[in-house]
Amino acid sequence: MTPPDTLPHGLLHPQAGWGRFVVGALVVAGAVSCQSYNDRVAGAVDAYRRGNFELAEQRFQDESMTGSAFLSGAEAGMSAFSDGRFEDALGHFQAAERATKDVEERAALGVTNLTESLLTLAVNESQADYPGEGFERVMVHVMLGLCYLTRGQPDEVLVEARRVDEILTGEHDLYGSDYGAGGVGHFLSAMAYELVGKTGDAYIDYVRMHEKGVGGDLVRRSLQRLARREGRANELERWNSEFGGEGPEVPYGWPTVVVIGGMGMGPTKLETKIDVPVKGGVFSWAVPKFDGGSGNISALELIFPESGTRIRSSVIEDVAAVAGENLDDRIAWLAARSAGRGLLKRQLADQMRDNKNGQVLGLLADAFTVFSERADLRAWRTLPRLWVAARAFVPPDEFVDIELGEVGGETVSLGRFRMLEGETMFVIARSTDGGLVAHVIGGEREDPPIQSPSTQGPQTPSPNSGL
Predict the structure, then answer these.
(1) pTM for this structure?
(2) C-alpha angle with apex 320: 440 to 371, nearest 5 degrees?
């Protein structure tokens, strides 16, 4: 950043004719920037929150509203995904990924738009393109992985999981921080490895989740199950001791039902702003912060009503916590940028007051200082607050009724399904203020039975919750 006292004199000096034009342009830019990202997308976010995913998708695709190709792709993608239109979602997420790469490549080549650079330097951070925070770029690849999972393409899921690892490694190398991010990526990777029969590699992903403190009972039972299956006697003994029991054994070949759910609404960026009166004017400083997201429901239950079995989900990623820590890594840099702009604007105001119309121009410069210094509140608003997962094993070739419920909220019937030996059925769920939405991928759904309501079918064996 160029120090204020070395900036070209004509750029700031009010006696230069085009200098006044620049000042006027900056005032206009500052006034426009006063409408925050949260204000611009409020209608689209509300539509998503209420479960009107198609309307949300349509609105988010308007890049003039989001001000970011990355956010348009990510927000529209999440809207389509939550609506069960996974192919549409895939296209949106691929667009978000391309947008990030375009920004990163331009930055690496030093081809940043000059107007954008000047406006960022003189107005606020929101004048620059937005390639996503580190955790948001991770989530794009998580969502791409989920889309490929719904397609039955585990190899592509593994490609996205590796990209998640690469971004997390880069963030760690850049900021030196280590927090529980990437749990959902490890879980997708583990599932993909299990689908292709590489249970040893899946075991490693579950170990990494356990080391990060995510996954709860889901991960604990998976570690015991795979250690037993892989013949890792010493590690099985360790897990049994650490977890206080051997855990249920899963009959070999039993099919499995896996729930992956997003809970609530992810964190929103808010502004921390300080306007400090100083001699002859004002100094402004502003940085963003994340709130903790919203939503009262924190868990799902996979329910088998015929046997009474209920399996509660485990948190595999706390998106709100990761977002806060990720932003904390950058907050000192953002604060320094804001302070630098404050000094620049302060110098502009001082030079205005040296003019013959100094009082009016100085007041104009002070107004520009106060109203233009705004924190960049752009963020991926449709992310969930939490990612959760649950898993159950069921007997092969038996029809079972399956329900999914919010703990403390509503319950939806998924239907009656039968699965073949070794088959995996996925349930993709989203819980918002508008209720619980679930989409089933896999399994054979039984047609509605043509029988008297009083007719009772055969008792179905209890699912094994060995996770």
Answers:
(1) 0.81
(2) 125
